[in-house]
Structures are given as C-alpha cells and as structure tokens.
Amino acid sequence: METKLDPMHALFREGNLSFVRGDVDSASRSSDAERPMVLLDKHGVVRFCNPSMELLFNCRKGELDGCDVAKLLPSLPLRKKTPGYNLAFATFWEQEALQLNLNGHTTTGGSLLLTVSVRRVSVERHHFILLSLFRATQHLGQDRELESLMAAAEVKSDMVIVTDTEGTICYVNAAFERISGYSRNEVLGQPARIMRSGLHDADFYKHLWATVKSGNDFRAVFFNRRKNGEIFNEDKHIRPFMNRQGKATHFVATSRELDEPLRSTLLRLQHEANHDALTGLPNRNLFMDRLGQALFMASRKNAGFAVVFVDLDGFKAINDNHGHAAGDAVLCAAAEHMRNSVRDQDTVARLGGDEFALILLDIQHREDVQTVLGKLLSVFATGTTFEKKHFSINASLGADIYPAGGGDIETLIRHADLAMYGAKAAGGACLHFFKEQDQRDAPLSDKTASRRCSSKTARLMMPRSSSLRSS
C-alpha cells in the first residue's frame, strides 16, 4: 500500500519555505535552506525540520519528527506539561519576532551554543512557530538593552551587525543576509573584514578603530563586497555598546544601502580621489595602497615584485618652451606608452609632475624586469605630436626588486628613486637597477639627489587622507 506523504512535510524537507506566510522576507529564502530550521506546533512538538537541523543535532533523517523541542532546547519550554509553557507560548505568539541565546543538547549528549530566531507563521490556516538556529560564537551577555536591540533588528530593513571589540561578528540580522548574500552561519565568528572591497586604504580602517575604541561613534560611506563579488555602497553608522562601567563590550553597526544615482556619484568621487585627472593613471594614494598589497601578497606567497621609478628627461624644457598644453600632451603620451608596455597585472601610476612609478608583479630577477620593460625605452623614443610639432620622449628608469633589494615599502621607494638618479647620471634614457654604490655616489653625481630622494620618500610615506570619509 502506497504511503501518502504530507505535502507540507515534503516542502519543508526540501528546504522550500515558499509556503510560509507572514513576515519572512522572500528575498532571504535562498539562504533559508542552509540554516537549521524547525517548525513547532502550539504544544512545542516538532512537526517538520530540514536536513540542516538534523545534522546540527546529530540526528538520523526523521528522528526529530514528533519530538518535544524541550529535549533539544531545555530553556525553550513549549509543551503544556513543561513549567513555564503558558508564559513562553504567549510571549512568542504576541511578538512579531524574537532573537534568543540558548544552550542546546544534541541527541548524542553534545552541547551547543545557539542563537535562535523565533517567528510566528501560518501554514494552511494552522498556526506554528518557526525557529531558525545559528551556531553562536559567544553569548552577547545579559544586557537587556542589547537583547532588545537584536530582537528589534530582525524586522528592520537596515542591515545590523554586532561584533565584539576585536571585530568578530556575533550577530547579523535578516536584512544583512538579504543584502550581502551571506547567511548567518557563514559570517558568525568571522572577522567583519570579510566584506571588504579593497577600495578603502589602511588609514581609513585605522581611523575607524581609533574612533570607536575611544568610545565615539563612526559614520562613513563604505564600499563593501557582496558574497557574489559585487561592490555595493552603504551609509554605515557604528557605535560602541557600553556596559555599566562605561567600557565598550560590543560594536553595533547599522547601515543602509545607497540608491543607484548616489552610488554612481560616490564611485565617480572614489575614482577621482585615486586617479590622476590628466592621464587617468592611479595617483600617489592608489600607488601606495597597491604597493602595500603587493608587499603583503609577496611575503605570504614567497614571491617577488619590482618597483620602478620613471622620470621624463628634458620635460621641463618642453613645458617652458612650448607651453603647458604641449607638456600635458607629452605626459599623456608617456602614460599611454607605459600602459601599453606592461602587463594587465602591473600598476602604472603618476606621482606628480613628470614622475611616474610602476609596480611589476611576479618578478624575481633583473631579467624579468628587462623582459617586461624591454620595449618601453624604444617606444618612448617614438615621441608624440602636438599641434603639428613632434616631441621626443626619453626617460630615466630606476628599479629595485623585493625581496632581494628592499624588504619594506620605505626602503623600496628610496632604492628605486636613487636608482633613477643613477640612470640620469649615466646620461638618461636607460634602466638602472639599485646597488649600494648608488647610495654612496648620489651626493657626488648630484649634490641635491640624496636630499631630493629623502624628501620624495617622506612625501610618499605621509599618511594619506581616506576618501569619502564622513564626519
């Protein structure tokens, strides 16, 4: 005899919650199937649960059907013969949503630390309570105000994230899941930087942490990255959550995704803040940020990279004799020559005036640099034409290689700059690699070279203003 399967049972076991009516946001259902979820009747009996729930409690398929939920969650009394049942059920049913921190027990005797989201739902004219369970990294304490904030956050349209004082995520609301694409299980216990886009520099985050750790609120427009890699903008307000002793125990971030017109404006401003207006190349800010990233990745992967400084020979004479428009044309032509001579993974930046810099990735030896830049000097020699006048372009290139040369950013910059002056001392229009002799010979070949090099290094190493920071 064929057994007839309850259609609601089939739907729930497949993780499809489209049959649930009420306040469950349809946009978040895609992640619901991944969460441990259980549907209880008014007596606290498990009617249906999904495979994630069975896995969490170490159960066989169907083992939890008809089970008293109090056996799994002792502090959630929802059976008439369990003390406190009437109060618990009334509390759950009268409120739109609750967020609780509870201890759970697996069927094999294990202990679980859980964050439980409680919602009332209706299924085919019957009333149930839907529990969504999340593995918690820690309880958020006994502060009633914080518990109330989390409960209210469940029904907010704004994203809410709670972290500990080290930036580890302790709680996110449903709006966070819908907007970011991450489920709660994926981010709980993870550092908040999981969503960083790379478009904010280190100074931005230093300022953020210095502000909130001193007990002050921080507000700014963030460029973050969804789980699918898409960058989105959020107007975020971060405030410290203080205990009675005046000490911050958590940080609460509330943010709202910005609409498309404002997002486009912010992206434009972000681009302008990090790129040279004349040539379109990355500017000093972005160059230093990418140099820091290159050093970090190379140190992790035991790889190498090169820093190359480029200074146009005879540029001042062109500017003085033919005007700034001609000088701008030469700068743009030089920028285009460099862009076309390096690989997509490399960086070409304009530091200012006629000074440029390159970051060449995956470089171990001088021969690797020469291979990448082999045609650049000959391409420079082709020059450019402006208002029917032809201008030749020559350049002095100085290079240093990590880790064989400089082992930190300041040293790499100083070595590349000294090497560039070494190229000029050799007559220009050549590539020169840094050697210790350059440091000793610089004052002899050019009395101001060493001083200018130190000044440039200091200028490049100056703290950079973080773009799009709001006060």
Automatic annotation (TrEMBL):
InterPro entries: DGC-Regulatory_Protein (IPR052163), GGDEF_dom (IPR000160), Nucleotide_cyclase (IPR029787), PAS (IPR000014), PAS-like_dom_sf (IPR035965), PAS_fold (IPR013767), Rev_trsase/Diguanyl_cyclase (IPR043128). Residues 145-190 form the PAS domain. SMART domains: GGDEF, PAS. Residues 442-471 are annotated as: Disordered. Pfam families: GGDEF, PAS. Residues 459-471 have a biased composition (Low complexity). One of its GO terms (biological process) is regulation of DNA-templated transcription. PROSITE patterns: GGDEF (PS50887), PAS (PS50112). Residues 303-436 form the GGDEF domain. PANTHER family: DIGUANYLATE CYCLASE DGCT-RELATED, SLL0267 PROTEIN. This is Sensor domain-containing diguanylate cyclase.
